[in-house]
Amino acid sequence: MAYNNPFQYSDDNKRYHTWNYYLKHQFHAKVFKVPLNTNFSCPNRDGTCGIGGCTFCGSLGSGEYAGNISDDLSTQFKQGQQMMLRKWPNGKSIAYFQAYSNTYAPLDILKKTFQPFVDRNDVCAISIATRADCLEDEKIEYLQSLCQKKEIWIELGLQSVHDQTAVLCNRGHSYAQFLDCIERLKHTDLKIVVHLINSLPYETQEDMIESAKAISSLPIHAVKIHMLHIMEGTQMAKDYQLHPFHIQSKEEYVDTVIRQLEVLPPTMIIQRLTGDGVKDLLITPEWTLKKVCVLNDIDKEMKRRNTWQGRLYKEN
């Protein structure tokens, strides 16, 4: 099927550089992630730089869809992989260390955690979710060594470049610390993906676009963008009930995402534009539960505006 699409990194109607496009061209197969839970913690949970974790994060450390912590990692992987293979029998697997900060442990523990998956023939890549303040030089050196056998992705939870927002969300590290981490990672073969969250407390749309502009000039490979979820049991839910702040509507979110995509370089991979809030715990916004509708609305509006990822990108 032919598409009238001005965006070069696309095989379909998408006007942005999708994760599926990258995986298809990199591994020549359907590739899926198998989420895992190492049961590590985070430095802003255990008192190292704070207590309670990021205020938007639940008790499972953003790993609500990761494996069962009562099972070992091999069992978690086997169960998750089998479930995905029922849908894509010829698919390839990414071992996705999702919950909490997955480099927040001594180096010898990290080696025991990651090495079995580096050695597996049925794993084509490894993705490790962590924080900028959990990547000391010795850990980066070890992770770099793994790139000889597997593609290694490092996912950094930035959420916003604005330190005032970071303080409100109890992130526990500054944007300057994040930039220092990027500086040390850029000399490696590690692939870097950065998380952004739209509609964090008291941020304007221009603040959100500024976050996208800021990362557009950094030596990173991919970005994940999604809407803030106010989830039951989180500190942010308590804060929101006491002092409600503006939560973007679907229409506002679609407009924000498109404007963010326009300022990102066309080569930057967009790993996601929606999030997965747990339905039974989601307080607001409920429209995020209809992920396909959100993505379709982004596609339709980009076509209506005749715009695409990178249209306004200015290389420094």
What does this 3D model show about the protein?
This protein has 316 residues and is an alpha/beta fold. Helix content is 35%, strand content 16%. The protein has helices at residues 19-27, 73-87, 107-118, 137-146, 163-168, 175-185, 205-216, 235-242, 250-263, 291-305, and strands spanning 31-36, 92-97, 123-130, 151-159, 191-198, 222-227, 230-231, 269-272, 282-284. The strands form two sheets. It has a seven-stranded parallel β-sheet, with helices on both faces. A two-stranded antiparallel ribbon has the order 7-9. Strand 2 (92-97), helix 3 (107-118) and strand 3 (123-130) form a beta-alpha-beta unit. The longest helix is centred in the N-terminal third of the chain and has 15 residues, at 73-87. The model has no long low-confidence stretch (mean pLDDT 93).
Strand content: 15-25%
Please mark out the parts with pLDDT under 50 across 5 or more consecutive residues, or reply none.
none
Work out the helix count: 10
- What is the spatial order of strands in the main beta sheet? 1-2-3-4-5-6-8
Gap between N and C termini: 37 Å
Main sheet overview: 7 strands, parallel
> Pairing-aware structural class of the strands and helices?
alpha/beta
What general outline do the C-alpha atoms trace?
Answer: globular
The level of helicity is 25-40%
Question: Quick one: how many beta strands?
Answer: 9
The H/E string reads HEHEHEHEHHEHEEHHEEH
* Rg (CA only): 19 Å
| Mean pLDDT across residues | 93
